[in-house]
Amino acid sequence: MIEAHLPILQVIIPLIAAPVCVFLRHPLITWALATVISWVCLAISIMLLQQVQASGEIIYEIGGWAAPWGIEYRVDTLSAWVMVIVTSVGAVVTPYAKLSAEKEIDRDRLYIFYAMLLLCETGLLGITITGDAFNLFVFLEISSLSTYVLVSMGKDRRGLTAAYRYLIMGTLGATFYIIGVGLMYMMTGTLNIADLAKLIPDVAETRTVQAALAFLTVGLAIKLALFPLHLWLPNAYAFAPSVVTVFLAATATKVAVYALIRIVFTIFGGVDILESVEIRHVLAALAIAAMFAGSAVAIYQTNIKRMLAYSSLAQIGYMILGLSMNSVTGVTAGLVHLFNHAMMKGGLFMVMGCVVYRIGSAKLDDMAGLGKQMPVTMGAFVAGGLSLIGVPLSVGFISKWTLLQAAFEKGWWPVAALIVVSSLLAVIYIWRVVEVAYFREPAAGQVAVKEAPFLMLIPMLLLIGASFYFGIDGTSTLTVAGDAAKALIGGLK
Fold first, then answer.
1. 9 Cβ partners below 8 Å, 6+ apart?
2. How far apart are CA 215 and CA 220, in angstroms?
3. Angle of CA points 178, 173, 314, to nearest 5°
4. Where does residue 15 rank: exposed (0-12), middle (13-18), buried (19+ CB within 10 A)?
5. Which pLDDT tens digit goes with each residue over 407-435?
6. What is the 3-state secondary structure of 134-167?
7. How far is C-alpha 198 from the chain's CA centre?
């Protein structure tokens, strides 16, 4: 039955489709292929989530070799949840990419773009589904290498510099991660994540394993752009082609957060590492610093893509803060924000893609009067901005309300106050855009522009609409995130 092989198909299908794009070369055909493949991957991820909810964890042995000698794929509620996030974004990005990529990427390189997009999705899905710590590194590199190419493909030459900086920082992160894996292997003799979870408690007090934890944490903190290891992210988002920014902002850092969760709550879950080594307070402090630093810097940006990039730093802070609380409610808040941030920030970057498509700029001053000229696009920005702030009926409200509940449960009243204050900072930078777009007249001689094309509006409205649909019906996402959180920490807290 094909259902039995869904875990391997989730990785193999986009992996095979990527070189097929290189072989086909025709921009329209490669776009059509990438679109079909992305929707197939979404269907597979939804079926896997349904299977896990119905019958529990799925274990798929590669080549018939049982772990730990062989490599296995494991799908539980958490991994299925993250796969749905990645494939949902991929499914709406590929239709959007046709016009956006044609505008910002040279036509003779479009086939490379679609190949790299599929390869990046392959890596992200592989990270999520693999049950092997070394294979996680392999998929991490597959996604990273393709990302470096994607960031550099725009006509803005600053994208090359951004890609190079991303390459340096990404390589450092990957090196730290693989050193940590090597140290764990030295002490346990296994690379299988489930096996490591059983063996680590016996050697958790050794300096080698504690050093491994430090290397793993720092490496993945670079990948997920946790403050102050975020320096690669603003330029990568600002100068990459708009469609690349949409995909990366909604998926890449989320999957890196997932990898950190696997390290902390699965591999080191048996020793409750957040409490025993006291890294919980370090993560919480860095998360709060990210919440304020990201939002504060965003206020002063004149490039809106760069502004949204710094906003993402703050949102990553909310995720890590939830995880650092080491409680069911806190982890639920972090996990539900993975999905919620993907929807609202993906939608906001799609808005900027539409703006760039029409006016060729993402600068704030160039957006004067767009509220009247592009009413649907700018209306979507306002809606996405409200969700980012966290107004009721939006997914942002669901995330922050759950995070506040977790803070109250822990008795962290000052932290709860900081969550509210940092959320209000988003009002300032969102309002700056609204003021220019709706209350400032276009510059003299500025050519009037039309609304964005239908093929770009529909994916954008899907993500922005999802930001409110799942805000009104928050039960479905909170249930899945809550189930994953209980499985991670055993429901004991």
1. 2, 44
2. 9
3. 135
4. middle
5. 888 888 888 888 888 888 888 888 888 88
6. HHHHHHHHHHHHHHHHHHCCCCCCHHHHHHHHHH
7. 29
Q: Which amino acid is at 193?
A: I
| Nearby residues of 87 by Cβ (< 8 Å), 6 or more positions away | 38, 41, 42, 44, 45, 121, 125
* Strand, coil or helix: 101: helix
In eight-state DSSP terms, residue 264 is I
Helix (H) or strand (E) run with residue 61 in it = strand 58-61
Helices (H), 360-412: 370-373, 375-389, 395-410
Q: Which residues contact 307 (CB under 8 A, 6 or more apart)?
A: 298, 301, 364, 429, 433
CB count in 10 Å sphere of residue 446: 13
Q: Which amino acid is at 446?
A: Q
Could you give the CA distance from residue 458 to residue 88 in angstroms, rounded to a whole number? 14
Alpha carbons 275 and 407: distance in angstroms, whole number: 17
Tokens read off for 325: 């609380």
Give the pLDDT confidence of 168-225 residue by residue, as tens digits.
888 888 899 999 989 888 888 888 888 888 888 888 778 888 888 888 888 888 888 8
Neighbour-count burial of 443, counting CB atoms closer than 10 A to its CB (0-12 exposed, 13-18 middle, 19+ buried) = exposed
The pTM is what? 0.86
The answer for residues whose C-beta is within 8 angstroms of residue 493's C-beta and 6 or more apart is 326, 327, 328
What is the C-alpha to C-alpha distance for residues 67 and 73, in angstroms, rounded to an integer? 10
Per-residue pLDDT tens digits for 238-293: 888 888 889 888 888 888 888 888 888 888 876 766 666 667 778 888 888 888 88
pLDDT of residue 483: 82
